[in-house]
Every structure is written in C-alpha cells, then in structure tokens.
Design brief:
alpha/beta, seven-stranded mixed sheet, 24 helices, Rossmann fold, homodimer
C-alpha cells in the first residue's frame, strides 16, 4: 500500500525553497520517500512513536513499514524486506535491534537507499560487540553510496516539511535555527525548550555516534539551506576536526555557528585551548553554558549582529541599569555616548532629574508613552550599535502596554534591540509581545548585556578573520626561502640514527635554516677545536657538553661560562669531559658546544609547536624562562600563520602587552616577532616529521630577537598516519612538504 | 480615628516569634503603630498605593494618616501633625516631597517616633540641594534617638506581619529569605520573581541612600530574627565597610549571606579584589550574576549546605550528564565515587548497559520507578555530599510522575538534593512538584552543578574561617616584639622633614625593626666610610646613590656592582658622586648605600601594603621582579594576618604553587613566608602613619628569604581622619598603635 499523508498540509509551505534532492543529504532532511525498517521488532513505545509521527504528522512523502514478520502496523501494510517496497527509497529509518543493523544496511545498499538513520544505541551489547557491529555496518555501507546517520541517533526533524523522524511526539515550529547534537536527550530538551520559548527551527538533527555523517557534512549542507539562518551545535566530540573546520570556515561568515562543547572536563587545558583557537580560526562562536546557547540561538534568530560594541541602555530603574552596564563592561562592551542631539531632545521630553546619560534612567514613574518616545529616539542615535530596554516592575509601570508600544516602533536596520522585562507573572504578557515582535528578551538585564557582547564578539571575530588570512606578498628578506638542504641533512641524520629528538646544535640549526635568529652555536670534539671556535667568536664564550636525551639530568645543564682566554677554554673543555665521563659514564662524552656569552637583558619568551592529537601541529607563543610553566601565559594558533594572525595570537598573552607597552624598558618591535612566528609556522607545516619544538628562551629586546635554546622532538617510525601531511587552513601560505623527510 | 485592619488575618501567625520590640529596628520591621506622613501631598498613585497597602492588607497594627491639609483619605481621618496622633508611633513613613522632609523628621523626633522611612528620592532637586537636604535631615535626627531608612527607600515588607510599607500592590509570601537592596527597582523585580517562583520572604528592605540605617544594622538585626534563614543582598555601594564586616562576620557562620555587588565596573580591579577579600574574610558568598543570586537564594532556602564537594548525578541521558559533570569539575566540585555496595545494588536493578558509574545514566527508557529506586539508593551512599537528578524529555519519560515519586523519598539529612527537569511545557508540573517538596530545581543541568559548587565553596569558606582566626601562641623568635624605638626614630625623622616617603635605607630598617629579613644596608657619606662598610661586610659589595623621590629617574637606578677591593669602592663612590652632581644637580648627592652583592638565584616575590579608600590597610603578596605589573599575580588580605590566613592568601597566587611545587628548583618553606607576612601585617596595623609599602623583590629560595629593596610611602599631614587608627578584624592579634606616630 502506497501510503499518503493522513493529515492535510497546514501551516507549512511544502517543498517550497527546499533543495532539489541532488545533494546527498537532501535524502536525510528532505526525503521524498521513507522506509521504517524493523517495525516487527517494535515492542517498545519509542519505536511505535517514530512511525506514528511520520504518518500522523504533516509529512507529504511516502512512508513504508518494513518488517520481517507481522502483517502491518497502524494503517500500513508491512513489507518483509526493503527490496519489496514498490518505489525508490530516499531515507531508511532503521529501528531494529543493533544485531540486525548490518544486514539491514546491506539490504538498503542493494536497493539504492540514499541515507539510513540508525537509532539503535547498541546499548544492550558490550563495548567490544558494539565496535564489531560498527565495523560490519561500515563494511556493508562501503559496498555502495549510502550515507549513515548514527548509530544512537534520536533522528531528524524538518518542520518545513512536517517531517518528524524522531520519537518525540511534538513537532518543532518552522523557523531559522538549525540545531545539531550528538545527544538525543539534549535534542529532546532543546525541542521542548524551542516550543516553550516559541523559537522556530529549520532542522533538528541528532548525530549519535557519527560513524559516517558528521559535523562537516551537516554544516556544509545547512550552509546552503535557505531556511537556515544560524546553526546551533551541542558537541560532545569533534571526531573529524578537519571536516568540521573546513565546513565551518566556509559557512560561518554568512551564517552564525554557535557551539557548546561539552565533555571538556576530561581533557587537558591545552587540548581545550587548541579547540578554542580552532573555533576562533574558523569564525565559530563558542559558548560555555547551555543557557548561553539557548539565549544566543534566540537572539541570533531574531536580531542582526551589531556593527560595533556600543550599547545604549534605557531603563526605568537605576539599579537594573547598573547591573546591565557592569556586565556590558566586564564582557568587553562599551557604554555608547549619546549624541548631543539625542541628549538635547531627551532633556526636553523627560523630567528634569533624568540620568542625562547612558544608561538612560527614565525614572520610576515612566509609563508606556515615555518609554516609547525615548526608545524611538535612542534607537535612532548613530552613536549606538545596539539597544537594551529594561523594565522593572514599579508601581506606575505597565509592562504589557509598554511592550505593546515598543513593538510598534520602526527600528533602524542592522541594530540589535534587546529587552529585559524584570519580575514575575506581571511581565509575562509583555515579554511575549516583545518576543513575537522579534525582540530578544532576557529575564535578567545582565544576561542581556552579555548576549550583546557575544553578538559583538562574533561580529568582530568574523571581521578579524577577513583581514587576517592574506599573506603579504613581499620578496624581501622576510620571505627568503628556507635552506632545505640543511634541513634534509638534519632529518636524515636523526632518522638514520633512530633518534626521537635532535640535540641542541641540530635544533638551533633547524630553526636557523628557516630564518629564525639563533645564538651562534658550534660543536667542538676537542679542546683545540673549542679554542678555535672561541677565537672565531671573538668575545667571552660559554662551553656546554653536547647532550642527548640519555644524558643524566644532573649533568645535562652543566656549563662553563665567561671564558675569555684560550687557556680558560681548554681548561673548561677538560673539566667538562672529566665531569661527563665521571657522572654520565665513560662513553657519554661527545664533545661540547661553544657559544658566545649573551647579555640576558630583555624579555624571556617561549615559542614552539606541539602536535595536537586532533588538530595536528599547533604553534605556541608566550612567557618564557624558568617560570613558563607557572604562569602558562601562552597562546595557541593553528598554522599556517600570516603576520596578522601571529599578532592576534600574541595579543592574547599578557607578556605581549609588556613587550609593547612601557614597563621601564624599551619596547620590542612586534613585526620582528610576527615574522619569527610566521617562519616557525612554515617550518612546522613543511616538516611533518617534527613532533614538538620548544624554544625557551627567545630573548627579545628593542634591538634583537634571539633563540637561545631549542629542543626538537621528532616522530619515530611509529608516527600516526593521521598526523603526517595534512590539509592546512589557508591556500596562501606555502605548504608543500619538503623532501627532507622523504630523502 | 483609630484604624484597625480591614482584612482579617489569614495565612500568617501574627507576632508569633517576632522580636519583643526592644531592638531599635523592631520599629522598622515589626512596628506596632505607623504614621504615614505627607498624605495631603499624595497626588501620585505611588503614594496612595503605600497607604492603601498598609490598610488593605493584613497588617494588624494601627495606621494613621498625617497631612498638613486635607480632611482624610480612604477611611482614615487625617491628623495635621504627627504630634496630634493619639498614640506613640513606632514607624513613620514620610512620603512628602523632599523639601518638607527635614521639618517632618524634626516633628517625628519631638514625639519620639523610633524609625522613619524616607521615600522621597529628592530627584526633583539638584545634586547640591539634595546634599543640603540630607545634612538638614541628619541634623534634625541628631536631636533624638530616631533611626532613618532612606532617602529614596522603596520601603519595607514583613510578610509574617502582613506589613507592606511599599507601593508594590502584591505582598510577598512568608518564608525564610531576607532580601536587601538599595534599589527600589531591584526590590520590585525580586518581589515579583519570588511570587512567581514561590520563594518565601522573611523581610524585604530597600535601603535607598543609606544616610543612617545601613548594611551592618540590618544584617545584625536579621541575624537575630528567627524567621530569617538566609540574607540575600544586592549592593551598589558598601558605604560603611566596617559596620558591614563586623555584622556579616558575626552572622555568616549561622546564616548564609549572599551578595551581588554591582557598580563595580567603575572601580579599579584592585578595589574589586579588596572587596572580594573582605567578603571572603567575613564568610560572605559573593556571586557575579543576578541569576546566581536568585538561584542561590532558592537553593539555600530549601536545602542544607554540603559537607564536602562530592556530587552524584543521576540522569536519563548521557549528554545532560556530561554537561553537569563538566560544570561541576570546572567550578571545583568532585564527581563522587559510588561505594561498591551502591554499584552492586544498581547492577542488579538496572539494564546491563547502564553507565556503571557516576553520572548514573539510567538510559533513555527510564520511567518513574527506575528513577525512584536509583535515587533513593544513591542518595543514601555515604560517598556523596549531594545529589543532582536530571530528567531530559525522552519518549518514555514521564516528568510529572517521576517528580511525584522523587518527592516521596525520604532523603538523608544534611545532603542537598538538586534537580534539573529539562525541556519546556511538559516539565513544568514536575518542576513545580519538586520545588514545593523543597528540592532545588534548575532549568539547565550545568546551572545546577554550579549552584552545588557555590554551596560547597560557601561551606568551605566558613570552615576555613573557623580554623584561620586564632594566632598560634608561641614565645619564640617568630613573635619577638618589634624594635619600636628604631621605628619611632624613622617616623620622627620623616615627619620632621615633611617627607612623604622614606628613603631606601629607612625603608629597609623599618622592615627590619619588625623582624623582616632584609639585605644588610649601610649609608656612607664619604668614600672612606663606604670602604669601611665594604670591609665590614667582607664580600663583594654594590654601591648605589642614596635617592629620594626628587631624584631624576635617569640616575635613580644607577649602581656600581661587584666591587671587591677598597680602591674599587673608592672609585665607585667618586664616580657616583660625580654622576649625581652632573645629572641631578650640585646639591643632590647625599652619599651612597653599601650592600653586599647577593646571588639572585631564587624566586623574586612581591610583598607590601596599600591603603584602600574604604577598607584601610591591605596586605599584598605575589610574583615580584620587573614583570610584577605584567602578570599581576597577587593576592590581597585584610590585616591582621595569622599564619593560616597568610597561607590562604598565598595559595591564591600562581607563584605560590611554583614556590612549593617542583619546577626544577628546591622548594621554599611556606612557614618562613607565612611569618614574613604576619609580621608585615603587624607593622601595617601598628604603624598607621604608613600609607604604602612595596617590597620588590623579596628573594626566596630553599635556604633564605630576604627583602632586597623596599619603598615606604607615609601619610603627610593631610592623612584622612578615617584612615588613622581603625578597628581590626581579630582580637587575637596585637593592634595597639605604637607610640611612634604620636612621638
């Protein structure tokens, strides 16, 4: 039986503006036909509910029940197998128990089903069995073109099509927000919340365990969906970071993407900081609370993004105005300065004792008319990038009438209008009026200010992104090509000897090959050689033993310093040799390194890289010296860096303010630091055999920048495949792997 | 006409448990008679409303209207003056315009009115006139014993007496929370919110401009009020910090005091940090959001404080459980480890695939019975200090029935039970059931975790407070009395010469007089004298010119270092003399100081004091050296310090972890640092002529602690009276002003 909808179309315009079915995920969110597979197993209400939702609600496509036994369900005939269904199937909803899923996916592949949702959590199985099942499912899927959502997906909802392929009994209202979460429980809560707060949804997707369809696929798809204006994500794991980053970067500049990442408590602070910088790099707004996710979803759905950080606050009470301005300033917003025209006009309109500034305190006896006249005028002030109206319940206050007046004002375009109707039952009707009129409402005025700051930070993020990605094209010394031959020699030596770290001299040479300024450093195997290097250097020198990772800690940091004469150098060589043989073993002495004594006056910085298990190479910059681990004053960035991105990264540290501000020393030229980091990022990208670089300290003063010490760790033969060459985020920077590792 | 209540008593038990009227503020919150003064002027609805509330609602005392003209209002006869009223008046509510208030207060004084509330904002007057009026009001009040609330007070409410002396038409429900705010608008919003959320109030007071009755008065009063179990404060200014601190300290250990301080955006971060440490010192819990104030009010009203940080989380969805545990760990809580008995019992009860740990994921099909059985068992686990139950709307979920089952469980005592019923309309009934049963409910699970952490931090705060205040009684070197004669000489010299700062040698001597270890430092007016000191020191020395605040910056930091021989010392003296005469002027050279060369290996710390305009002397500790201003890694404390308080203060810095942890150096003994700060705090308290002390660096290593440099600023003759000798927070520490300043 070819089943058609049982309820006629109501409030939604069907298939209008819906993609044409050519995108693979159209079959997920705009399917023309659906098979619900495994209906004979549905003893549980959960699964009955899914099927009932598909046929009872207003979805207009064809729905088929597939069950290995059983004569039918509800009004539907039941087909034994999906290949018995008489028309091609876009979407299969596999609700059978986990053990049957691989076989059912195989049947779907055989008849050309385009997408399958797997709802089974496999939660009746043990962990090992689950992994085995997933492998089997993927093996079946790999025989064709089918895409899979789940397992453990709660399903999908597309209110514009009346499509409710979830067990939730209520359908979301159609609107402009797409909501994605791995968790079915969170999807259910968001659905209920959206109905309660009258927030319209364009798509609701529960991704489950993401063995196939992931963040990148859905963000890319929703980026092209004309119904979706913003994408709200509750993320437990990022899974495939590059797919996420590419898609988010392409979409974020036209549609806000807001992410609440949970599950971070089990991660290192470092991993979390890298995630932060990845989100920033692709223009995603990260929030830290579920309530913020909801608040931002609401306000972004209703209001434009501000052009600047300047907020005007209109209030009928001084206290609430202060609460709002405190929160505004704390979160980086600015209290807008009203234009003289606005002030003059308000002086004419308001009682003599009004606040004469921003926050605009209209006094406790402000009625709807006074509110409306002031709001209209203040909203039009060109000095404001946004407006917050606060109403607190006072004896003369009429929350409903005031809201009614405010919603009739025609507000200037491009300026967010927020409101906080404080209080309890008395303000609900007014709040509802404002909300329906598209004004973002908040119970507390400080929350409203914070939401405005989020909005502004998001705008700012996107602006920075635009200006930061282009590498200046210069052909001067700054962009001189690296000495790849020298690099190749170092890499080959390390590889041949099976070492996983470079010694100090190799490490500094590697940096030097990429144009990073390093302290002159020479290896000497004999006292005579050491003396020759000292004479070539021509100033006082220091001698240190050449060490490797096996060198006992007690002697690794030994040195002889302030050596002025040949005799002193010779004596120091002998002393170090004797010390090493005695303390580290007879075979351990491999010679010394000779370096000029360096005047340490200046800032001690840290620069380097490490390999994040998800995002691959990451560049670090921060406060260096021996206390680097105490203050952890450092910023992370994903390479490649442009000078602008390097600057933005440095600006996130405290030490950068000291470098460039005046703390009793001459300042450091930020451009030399920018290029230091740009070259370091190039090294990190082009030499994927490097696992980690620690340059500590980098000595920075007004007239020089010098790497004094470096430690480079390289991948052994066990380098994970995923961490070898990988895509980079900008096509403007050089990222051809050098031949060094391949040599 | 002697007016009696127009509505009979209803839900409240009158005057039962209410104080006996002997406390002066009984006349404010439990008055036996009220005069509303200025009724003839009440053209505005606001003021009519106040009077109507007093006579229409269930207040049982006598209410009189006083008006210079007019024949009466409502059913009340109007008396021309308050002395015409035929009985003694406890509380006068002066609703007349500001200009008439001084005279009316005078009349109240004459007839022995005990408390007057002044509602007028004076907002029709200019700033100067307002100040003048306030002076006049205080002058009139000063003639008697009357206490004043306001001006610009919204009034007071005591639901237990049916007393609504505000213009708000609704009366709060009787309950256990006292709410205090300066702002009438915030009081109004809180009142509405409390009714909407069914939170009971014991007293609502709008303090207005606090020319008389302030925080300390009300906290002290409510501390003795048996109805009040917690005190919630929205504070715009602290006004009289000592009165606040004394009262809060006395009350906070028995009744939670929660403060939202607003208006901080205009203050320095330093002033805010001092406020923070003052709140901590007196056991007050500070929150940063209006929503937190409400949430904590609710949860404290309903639930006990936890004995420890260990929370158990029961949920029917993995995602919400992760959100809750993320927030818990982020805010310093601990995921409780279930006892083996609990785990074994749940293994028997739950489907095989439950989470087998905390969070307890009961799976998406958990019904009311499964929830109830698990919650009952988990609540009883001795390894938990609190319990959070999360319900997310899933197809098998019954939010109302689940809530109904949970509220019937008998929970163990002393353990807070929180709940988060996620979703929209479907969960409201369940949420309401839980709330009525005294369970703290939160819309979002992460908010619930954060509330638990606030509860725990508050408990911990109080515990620390108890153990920290006693000074160990020892008679050893650590508590050796200061050399007050030496101090007196320094103070006298500074005072006689009219200087506002001590020179380096005086500064170090002052520290030394209080037992702080300082680098040996000697003044030499001639080369010969410098050589003699160098010889007495016996190691390499450094010479610096003796400087004062007028010394040009360019030469102030000049020194000659590593001087080994008499000849070198002589030459250095001559060079410094010549340099000073040339660069700073012929009369500027006052000799040099001679110090031994110090090996700088160790941590560079900062210690000192400054004078906060509100709180007086404050002790500082943190990271020192030249980057001290960059990292601002410092903690503040109000003196006097005990060793425990000094430790708590240091623990709030990052550098302290480095000092005592292992970062490749030997650790510093925290006890030497504690006593350094204890002695410094004693100096700060006993010598009120000192305005500021900067000791930077204090060199700290495993075997020594040494102040290398100090700068002491003293009050000139213009020292503000309020900052001279002042009360201190503990009677255990010595705080007799020394005779030095008086000499």
């Amino acid at each position: 039986m070819n089943h058609s909808v049982m309820t006629p179309p109501t409030r939604v315009t069907r298939l209008d503006g819906i993609p044409d079915g050519k995108h693979p995920l159209d079959a997920l969110l705009a399917p023309r036909s659906i098979a619900v597979i495994g209906t004979s197993e549905i003893s549980e209400d959960v699964d009955r509910a899914v099927l009932r939702n598909l046929i009872d609600q207003s979805y207009s496509g064809n729905v088929y029940a597939v069950a290995s036994r059983g004569a039918g369900i509800f009004d539907l005939r039941s087909y034994p197998r999906v290949d018995d269904v008489p028309e091609p199937i876009d979407l299969a909803l596999i609700i059978a128990p986990a053990a049957q899923v691989p076989e059912l996916v195989g049947q779907c592949v055989d008849v050309g089903v385009r997408v399958a949702i797997i709802t089974s959590s496999g939660s009746r199985e043990t962990g090992r069995a689950v992994a085995e099942l997933e492998r089997e499912i993927l093996a079946e899927a790999g025989r064709g073109q089918i895409r899979l959502l789940g397992p453990k997906s709660f399903g999908v909802m597309n209110p514009f099509l009346g499509l409710n392929a979830t067990p939730a009994s209520l359908m979301a209202q159609p609107g402009n927000i797409a909501f994605l979460s791995q968790s079915g429980a969170v999807c259910g809560a968001v659905l209920d919340w959206s109905l309660h707060e009258k927030i319209g949804i364009s798509a609701l997707v529960s991704l489950g365990k993401m063995i196939d369809i992931g963040w990148g696929d859905l963000i890319g798809y929703l980026g092209d969906d004309p119904r979706t204006r913003s994408i709200i994500i509750h993320m437990e794991s990022i899974h495939d970071p590059h797919s996420f980053l590419w898609a988010a970067r392409a979409v974020a500049s036209t549609k806000p993407i807001i992410v609440l990442k949970s599950g971070g408590a089990g991660e290192s602070p470092e991993a979390d900081a890298v995630l932060d910088c990845a989100f920033r790099r692709c223009g995603v707004l990260r929030v830290r609370r579920l309530s913020h996710l909801f608040a931002m979803a609401e306000v972004l759905a209703k209001q434009p993004r501000p052009r600047g950080p300047r907020l005007m606050i209109v209030t009928n009470g001084g206290g609430p105005g202060v609460l709002a301005s405190d929160a505004l300033l704390e979160d980086g917003g600015v209290l807008a300065t009203p234009s003289p025209e606005t002030l003059a006009a308000l002086d004419d309109e308001l009682p003599r004792c009004w606040s004469h500034g921003n926050p605009f305190d209209l006094l406790e006896d402000a009625g709807p008319e006074r509110f409306a006249r002031v709001v209209e005028r203040v909203a039009a002030d060109p000095n404001a990038d946004g407006l917050l109206v606060i109403l607190s319940p006072q004896p003369m206050t009429d929350p409903t009438q005031t809201a009614d007046r405010l919603r009739r004002i025609s507000y200037p375009e491009g300026k967010p209008i927020l409101a906080s109707w404080m209080g309890g039952a008395d303000v609900l009707a007014g709040e509802d009026l404002l909300s329906r009129a598209g004004i973002g409402t908040f119970r507390n005025p400080d929350s409203a200010s914070r939401a405005f700051c989020y909005l502004w930070r998001y705008s700012e993020n996107l602006r920075t992104l635009g200006e930061a990605t282009a590498m200046p094209s210069t052909d001067d010394e700054q962009t001189r090509p690296p000495d790849l031959e020298a690099v190749a020699v170092i890499a080959r030596d390390a590889r041949r000897s099976g070492r996983t770290s470079l010694n100090e001299i190799e490490s500094l040479r590697l940096l030097s090959a990429y144009g990073l300024p390093t302290v002159p450093t020479f290896a000497a195997a004999s006292a005579e050689e050491a003396v020759r290097w000292a004479q070539a250097i021509g100033t006082s020198v220091a001698l240190k033993p050449l060490t490797d990772p096996d060198t006992p800690r007690a002697v690794a940091h030994v040195s002889r310093r302030d050596l002025d004469e040949a005799e002193a150098v010779s004596r120091a060589f002998a002393a170090l040799e004797e010390l090493m043989r005695r303390k580290a073993g007879p075979d351990h002495f491999r010679g010394v390194i000779v370096q000029p004594m360096i005047d340490l006056d200046g800032f001690k910085l840290f620069a380097g890289s490490h390999t994040d298990p998800l995002f691959g190479p990451v560049v670090l910059f921060g406060f260096g010296g021996r206390l680097t681990e105490v203050f952890k004053d450092r910023a992370y960035a994903l390479p490649p860096l442009t000078p602008t991105l390097a600057r933005r990264m440095m600006e996130r540290t405290r030490i950068y303010r000291a470098l460039t501000g005046n703390h009793g020393r001459e300042t450091v030229d930020p451009r030399t630091l920018e290029w230091f980091l740009v070259r370091l990022s190039r090294l990190v990208i082009e030499q994927p055999w490097i696992k980690q670089i620690d340059i500590n300290p980098v000595l920075a003063s007004h007239d020089r920048l010098l790497a004094l010490n470096a430690r480079v760790v390289v991948w052994g033969p066990d380098v994970p495949e995923s961490l070898r060459p990988r895509p980079v985020l900008s096509a403007d920077a050089p990222h051809q792997p050098s031949p060094a590792w391949l040599a």
